[in-house]
Specification:
The chain is α+β, with helices and mostly antiparallel strands. The protein has 15 helices and 28 strands. The strands form 7 sheets. It has a 4-stranded antiparallel sheet with strand order 1-28-27-26. A hairpin with a 3-residue loop joins strand 11 and strand 12. Helix 6 runs antiparallel to helix 7, helix 9 packs antiparallel against helix 10 and helix 11 runs antiparallel to helix 12. The longest helix is centred in the C-terminal third of the chain and has 21 residues. The two termini are 35 Å apart. About 8% of the residues have low confidence.
C-alpha cells in the first residue's frame, strides 16, 4: 500500500564485499540474493537470516557488472559478466567455474534470462553486440552474435543493457549508448542467422524504437548534443509485459506502453472550420464535453494554484496530476500543469508542457492560454517553423489577445533567422552518418507515456530503474546523489526518498513477492529496505498523500530533486571532480548543502 511504501526504512546491511557492489539478483522465490562486485567475487545471501551462504571466487579479472541465476537450476547455476569481456557459468554447489565465454571484445554490461528457456541467456556488451548463448549446443557453437548494432547505428555504438519480455519472450529490448531503446523479435533474427552467416539484424526483426519526443528532434541541435551525452543504462519490463521502463543517462526515467503507439507531439493545430465557427468572445466558455469538477478535484486545483503562486512548481505539478486522476478530461488542469512545467524547467519539462497543451486543446480548442503556452513550448524546444505556425494561428484565432503574443512572435522570428544562418554556415558537417533504415526507425520512435523526475543519472552507466510493488504500481531508481527515489507510477508523484549510499546508488532490485527492496552502489554493502514502524536516519521520507497541505517534507524532498537537476546541468569536469571527493562551492550558482561528498572508490562506469 502507499502507506507501506511511505514507511520504508532500513531493515539491515549485508556486509561481505570489499568494493563497489554493481549488481544484485533475487532468485525466483526470493529466498536468496546474489551480488557481484568490483572485488570480482559473487556472494550468495540468505534473505531470511541476512547471512552469507557462499563467497564465490568468479575468476574474473575485471569488475563484475551482471549476475543471473539460470532458471530451473534450483539456484545452482549462476552466470556472471564482467569488465574483462568474459561471461562465466558457475556451479554454485561445487563453487567452481564450469564454462567460460571469451567472445566479446569489450566490457559485458548485462545478462538476461527468461523462465521459459532455462538453457539460454543473452548478453549486451560494449563492442556493440547482443549475443545469444544456448547450452544445448556443442562447443564452439554455444554462442552467436544475435544483433550487431554498429553497422546500422555507428562505429562506436555500445550495448549497455537488455531485457527479455516476461510474457512474450520473443521480444528483446536493448539499450544503447544513445537515447533510443530498440525492440527486436528474436524469432526473426534467429531465423535469419540460421539461414545465413550475416550478423546484421534483418529489418523485419525490428519491432519498434522508443525515444522521448523532444530528444528525437533535439539531436538536430549539434551544440546541445556536444554538451549532453545520452545512454540507456537500464531497461525493465512490467509483470504483464505491456510496459517498458527506461533509465536514460543524462535525462530522466521514462515509461513506454508497447500496446499504445504514441507518436511525438508537435502542436495541436486548429482547422479553418474550427477558427471560423468559434468567435473570440466564447474563448473562455466551458465546452459541453467537459464535465464539472468534483469538490475534491476543485480543491486540489486551487491548492495547485496556490503552490504555483508561491513558486513551488513541483508541488503544483503533483497537485494538478493528482486532480487529473479524478478528472482526467479537465483541460484547465493540463493547461495549468503546463504552466508549472514551463516555470520549473527541469530536463524534459518543456516537452511535457507541450504534451499537456496538446491534450488541453484536444478537450477545449478555445483555451487561449494553452494555445499561447504551446507556442512558447515550441519556441523553447527550438522547433521554430512549428512555433511560427502556432503563433500565427493564435493571432488569427484570438485577435483581441494578439497583443499579448507580439513579444513571443518577435522572439520566435529572431531565433528562427539566427538558427537558419547558423545551419547555413555549418554546411552539413555534423553528426555521424547512420544508414537510412536506422534513421527511419528513429523518426518513427514511439513517445513515452509517463516520465519521472528527481534523480540524477550522469556518472555511471549501470544505474537501474525498476517496477516496484505487487502490481508494478511504483517506480524505483538509483541516483548519483546517493538516494533511491520511488514514484507513484500513474501520478508520477515522488512517494519516498531513501539514503541508499554515501556516494551513488546504482542497483535497485525489488523482492519478487514481498515489499522488500535491495539497493547497492559505491559502498561495499547491500541495504535492504522494508516497511518500518519508525523512521530511520537513512530515510528522508515524504509527506503523506492524504495530507497534501503538509509542506515540510515536500520542501526537503523538492530541494534534493532540484539539486539533482543542477547536478545534471553542471559541467562534466565539475561533476567528475565532485565524485572524486573534491568539494565545490556551488552547482548552478546555488549552495547544494553542507555535507561533504564521499569520494568514489571505484572507477565510474
Amino acid at each position: 500500500t502507499k502507506r507501506q511504501v511511505e514507511s520504508l526504512g532500513l531493515e539491515c546491511e549485508l556486509k561481505g564485499h570489499t568494493s563497489c557492489v554493481n549488481c544484485l539478483e533475487w532468485n525466483t522465490d526470493g529466498s536468496v540474493l546474489a551480488s557481484g562486485s568490483d572485488d570480482q567475487t559473487a556472494i550468495i545471501w540468505d534473505a531470511l537470516t541476512h547471512r552469507k551462504k557462499l563467497i564465490h571466487r568468479t575468476g574474473h579479472s575485471g569488475n563484475i557488472f551482471s549476475v543471473k541465476f539460470l532458471p530451473q537450476s534450483n539456484d545452482g547455476l549462476l552466470v556472471t559478466a564482467a569488465a574483462d569481456g568474459e561471461i562465466r557459468l558457475h556451479d554454485l554447489s561445487r563453487s567452481e567455474v564450469i564454462e567460460e565465454f571469451r567472445c566479446n571484445e569489450k566490457r559485458v554490461k548485462r545478462i538476461s534470462t527468461t523462465a521459459d528457456m532455462p538453457y539460454m541467456f543473452w548478453s549486451a556488451a560494449e563492442d556493440g553486440t547482443i549475443r545469444q548463448y544456448d547450452l544445448r549446443q556443442s562447443l564452439p557453437n554455444r554462442d552467436m552474435i544475435l544483433i550487431n548494432l554498429r553497422p546500422a547505428c555507428s562505429s562506436h555504438a555500445e550495448a549497455k543493457c537488455l531485457s527479455i519480455n516476461p510474457t512474450q519472450p520473443h521480444l528483446l529490448a536493448v539499450g544503447c549508448s544513445d537515447q533510443y531503446v530498440r525492440l527486436y523479435d528474436v524469432r526473426k533474427v534467429t531465423a535469419r542467422l540460421e539461414s545465413q552467416t550475416s550478423s546484421t539484424c534483418p529489418d523485419n526483426a525490428t519491432v519498434h524504437y522508443f525515444c522521448p519526443g523532444h530528444l528525437n528532434e533535439q539531436m538536430t541541435n549539434k551544440r546541445m548534443r556536444r554538451y549532453r551525452q545520452f545512454a540507456v543504462t537500464y531497461v525493465a519490463w512490467s509483470l504483464d509485459g505491456q510496459e517498458l521502463l527506461v533509465n536514460l543517462g543524462g535525462e530522466q526515467v521514462y515509461l513506454y506502453d508497447i500496446s499504445d503507439i504514441r507518436r511525438p507531439v508537435h502542436f495541436n493545430s486548429m482547422s479553418t472550420s474550427d477558427m471560423e465557427c468559434r468567435s473570440d468572445d466564447t474563448s473562455s466558455a466551458i465546452p459541453s464535453t467537459v464535465e464539472p469538477m468534483s469538490e475534491h478535484t476543485m480543491q486540489l486545483k486551487l491548492d495547485g494554484n496556490t503552490a504555483f503562486k508561491q513558486q513551488q512548481y513541483s508541488r503544483a505539478i503533483y497537485l494538478y496530476s493528482e486532480a487529473m486522476t479524478r478528472s482526467p478530461k479537465q483541460p484547465v488542469l493540463y493547461a495549468n500543469r503546463a504552466a508549472a512545467y514551463l516555470k520549473r524547467q527541469w530536463f524534459g519539462d518543456v516537452y511535457a508542457a507541450l504534451k499537456d497543451c496538446y491534450t488541453a486543446l484536444s478537450f477545449d480548442p478555445s483555451n487561449h492560454k494553452a494555445h499561447l503556452r504551446q507556442a512558447n513550448c515550441l519556441h523553447q524546444l527550438k522547433w521554430y517553423q512549428l512555433a511560427r505556425e502556432c503563433i500565427r494561428q493564435f493571432q488569427q484565432r484570438f485577435p483581441t489577445r494578439a497583443a499579448k503574443s507580439q513579444e513571443l512572435a518577435r522572439a520566435i522570428e529572431e531565433d528562427a533567422n539566427r538558427s537558419s544562418k547558423s545551419k547555413e554556415s555549418a554546411n552539413g558537417s555534423d553528426a555521424e552518418h547512420t544508414n537510412s533504415t536506422e534513421r527511419d526507425f528513429q523518426r518513427l520512435a514511439i513517445d513515452f507515456k509517463y516520465h519521472y523526475c528527481g534523480h540524477c543519472n550522469t556518472t555511471t552507466d549501470i544505474k537501474e530503474a525498476t517496477f516496484f510493488g505487487g502490481q508494478s504500481q511504483y517506480i524505483a531508481a538509483g541516483s548519483d546523489d546517493g538516494h533511491c527515489f520511488i514514484w507513484d507510477k500513474q501520478t508520477t508523484r515522488l512517494t519516498q526518498v531513501i539514503n541508499g549510499d554515501d556516494s551513488i546508488v546504482n542497483c535497485v532490485q525489488p523482492h519478487p513477492s514481498q515489499l522488500l527492496l535491495a539497493t547497492s552502489g559505491i559502498d561495499p554493502v547491500i541495504r535492504l529496505w522494508s516497511p518500518q514502524a519508525e523512521n530511520h536516519d537513512r530515510t528522508v521520507g515524504y509527506a503523506s498523500e492524504r495530507d497534501h497541505t503538509d509542506k515540510s517534507h515536500f520542501v526537503r524532498i523538492d530541494k534534493i530533486a532540484s539539486d539533482n537537476q543542477k547536478r545534471m546541468r553542471s559541467d562534466p569536469l565539475e561533476i567528475m571532480l565532485l565524485n572524486m571527493g573534491m568539494r565545490l562551492g556551488s552547482m548552478g550558482g546555488e549552495e547544494s548543502g553542507d555535507e561533504e561528498e564521499a569520494a568514489v572508490q571505484c572507477r565510474p562506469s
